[in-house]
Amino acid sequence: MDWALILVLQVMFQPSLSGLFFTVDAEYALYESKLGEDVVMSCRFRPKLSHPLAYLKVTWHWFTYTLVRDVYRMDNWKEDLASQDPDYQGRVRLLTEQLQEGWSKLQISRLRINDSGTYQCLVEGEGADYKTMTLSVVAPYKTVTKHIEKVAEGDDVLLICQSEGYPESSVMWQDGTLRTLNASTTSASTPDQLFTVNSRIRVSLSVENNYTCVFEKDGYSATFHMPDEIPVPPVKNNAVIVVLGIGVVMVVIIVAVLLYRRRKGSRNLLVDGRGRSVSTAACTAKNKEYKEERTVFNEGCMEETLRAFLKAHYSDYSFSMEMRHHWDAFGVEELSHRLQNNKGQPVNLQALLPEAGKTLFLEGPPGSGKTTIAHILVSSWTEGPTHALSNLFDLSSLRFLFYVDCSKVKGDLFQEVTIQLSLKDKTEHELRTLLTSEALLLLDGYREGNPFFDESLRKFLMERGRCRVLVMACPGHCPSLNNTVGTEGVLQLQTQSMKC
Ligand SMILES: *[C@@H]1O[C@H](CO)[C@@H](O)[C@H](O)[C@H]1NC(C)=O
Ligand SMILES: *[C@@H]1O[C@H](CO)[C@@H](O)[C@H](O)[C@H]1NC(C)=O
Ligand SMILES: *[C@@H]1O[C@H](CO)[C@@H](O)[C@H](O)[C@H]1NC(C)=O
């Protein structure tokens, strides 16, 4: 049957037959169903058949203004599928048992999106009539997949939600406070006439928030909990393995070098089989008695050992060369003229030593001599009363000085102390104990921005005990630490000498 015939039928039957003796009525004007499911569309014809084998012809068409598809045809009780459109082959059946009751019911299975449209049911028997109805096949956007993409540069990430459905849907984004966010949404069609809708927003990695995308057609959504959901790129794992590997190799080399030195007896330093360093002066007597592995440390001995180890480390040739280099660049006299308190009054160098349990900031622009001061403090502690500047500083109250070069920090505070000072045999607990005793923690060139380090420092400062902390930084590099310390504990280093 073609389009022209339908028009002819329309003209023929519409005015004359409907409402007279033979009528056809659609059960519903609109049928809505889901992709892949089944639908049954029904037409009732009246009057019913006068006897069971009375002549009956049932026809179902799908049509638009430009196209007609034969869906089903039964002529005088015989199915006629020769002209059936291939799109419907094997998917339609007439519920023939209902015909005697006056129903033409068509079942379409495994619905496709393009089954949507207008259907016409035509019944011819002891009269003829037809009705049309609309079928709408939808596909809900129910599986929302989300993923996170790193933006090449900067700290932002893209949060992406994607789903398939029909008809096209818009996507709304909200954050944890129900604020609506600007998203970029695109859609593309699939071979099944579905829409693949992809929506993305760009957010900052450092902000803690929840982001929800909602496919507005059906209300399906997905939520990102940031920053918890940031995937750890596999590359990073490799990097960790490499770093660990290098770490192990370094430990082996350090132990080997220290053992070598000890054998030569050129240093006042020993290392036992487990990598502990031992000051001969304090502990030889004991060590002589035991095999290396069985060395017994009492607490005093261990402290003495560590002090000797740190001093050896600081007087290490390369370290002290660097110190001298900085030192020579400034006259020490000059430095002491540049130092002032938070009120702009000059103070002497001894003021650089914070009181026990206190934190002090030394602020100065690059090139003002902060690192030089740090190195003078280190060498002064290392050399004790024999130091050239022992008249300017008295660091004898310090049992330990932990110098951390913050320009190269990567890990947290304890990792950095461990690595930079080669204290690999100390557990974090031991280090904590040592740091919270009569120690000076000297952070040279500190700058906030490394989350691990910043957080561990913040924690340490809350439980620092008698530890003195001297932070050397450029102005404005440590705003949050500055806030916790207040202006009281700030010293400044001018680039110009303040001689009047
Ligand atoms: C994010 O969602 C979690 C769990 O639903 C909730 O505990 C948390 O408070 C939310 N965070 C924000 C910033 O809305
Ligand atoms: C949202 O995006 C549109 C176009 O991309 C832009 O014109 C508008 O200013 C944005 N609104 C906000 C709040 O960012
Ligand atoms: C309807 O969609 C199916 C696939 O879902 C396709 O094979 C068929 O050609 C489409 N028919 C029309 C008329 O677009």
Description:
With 500 residues, the protein is an alpha+beta fold. It folds into four domains: 3-138, Immunoglobulins (Immunoglobulin-like, Sandwich), CATH 2.60.40.10; 145-226, Immunoglobulin-like, CATH 2.60.40.10; 238-310, no CATH class; 317-493, P-loop containing nucleotide triphosphate hydrolases (Rossmann fold), CATH 3.40.50. It is built from eleven helices and 26 strands. The chain has a six-stranded mixed sheet with strand order 2-10-9-4-5-6. A hairpin with an 8-residue loop joins β7 and β8. The longest helix has 31 residues, at 234-264. It is rod-shaped and about 125 Å long. It holds the Pfam family NACHT. Keywords: Cell membrane, Disulfide bond, Glycoprotein, Immunoglobulin domain, Membrane, Receptor, Signal, Transmembrane, Transmembrane helix. It is found in: Cell membrane.
Primary descriptors:
6-stranded mixed beta sheet; Immunoglobulin-like; P-loop_NTPase; 26 strands; CD276 antigen; disulfide bond; binds 2-acetamido-2-deoxy-beta-D-glucopyranose; single chain; alpha+beta; cell membrane; receptor
Q: What small molecules does the structure contain? A: 2-acetamido-2-deoxy-beta-D-glucopyranose
What is the distance, rounded to the nearest whole angstrom, between the alpha carbons of the first and last residues?
110 Å
Low-confidence stretches: 15-19, 265-297
What amount of the residues lies in strands? 25-35%
Going across the biggest sheet, name each strand in turn: 2-10-9-4-5-6
